[in-house]
Design a protein that fits this description.
alpha/beta; 8 strands; about 45% helix; globular
Length: about 240
């Protein structure tokens, strides 16, 4: 099933396991997927920054994606960020054909102005195809690209295939509040917001309107508990 704006819960950012010689540890991929599912993950995100995607060649990235998708009983989002649109298109289309729920796209660090950021996402979606659901990866501490709530709104409203924001500003609570305010006033369509930062601000982010977590964390069952209890109104 394709990703949409109703996605909620915990989508851990998965590492890519390697053997000591640098080869991909395919056996550990299966046990990793099983672990995340048993911990209460509602989805899984692979080949992100924590997944060390730049260390993989195109064939390895696709093979890992197919293995994870085949193993998981939950939706899988695949990071397809690349230095060129051709590579992004090839991986995005291949993983969707393999059964991925959607893809995640990070802005390149060279982007500086609002118009540059919006134009980049327009070009990326023109390349991969508007039928593929995608996630905006907003991680200014690592990517050095500053996306304001207004810029995110422009991307979401311009590109119907944008269904989720991976929010990892620091702490960025006002950004979540601003986006939800846009929705209430009718200037932003519904959007799933999952947050990062190692879960450090997750309880506060849930109060501001986040739908859950998408982060690398050693104890994803704890993230699942925080999301569940927050949704049940059990703040304490």
């Amino acid at each position: 099933m394709k990703l949409d704006h109703t996605a909620r819960g915990v989508f851990p950012i998965a590492p890519t396991p390697f053997l000591p010689d640098g080869a991909v540890d395919t056996k550990s991929i299966d046990t990793m997927c099983d672990f995340y599912f048993s911990a209460g993950a509602t989805g899984l995100t692979i080949l992100g920054i924590m997944g060390e995607a730049p260390k993989l060649d195109a064939d390895e990235a696709l093979a890992i994606s197919r293995q994870v998708i085949g193993r998981c009983e939950i939706p899988v989002i695949v990071g397809v960020s690349a230095s060129g649109f051709a590579a992004m298109r090839n991986l995005a289309r291949a993983v969707m054909d393999a059964g991925a729920a959607g893809v995640m796209i990070a802005p390149p660090p060279s982007l500086r102005t609002d118009d540059q950021i919006v134009t980049y996402y327009h070009n990326a979606i023109e390349a991969i195809g508007g039928e593929i659901p995608f996630v905006i990866q907003d991680y200014p501490l690592t990517l050095s690209v500053i996306m304001t709530p207004a810029v995110i709104r422009r991307i979401v409203m311009d590109l119907p295939s944008c269904v989720m924001l991976k929010h990892e500003d620091w702490p960025g609570l006002e950004k979540i509040s601003a986006l939800r305010a846009f929705q209430r006033e009718g200037s932003l369509r519904p959007l799933s917001i999952l947050t990062g930062n190692g879960g450090l601000f997750l309880d506060f982010e849930m109060e501001r309107g986040a739908d859950g977590a998408m982060t690398g964390y050693c104890f994803p069952d704890m993230l699942a508990d925080v999301v569940r209890l927050s949704n049940d109104g059990k703040r304490d």
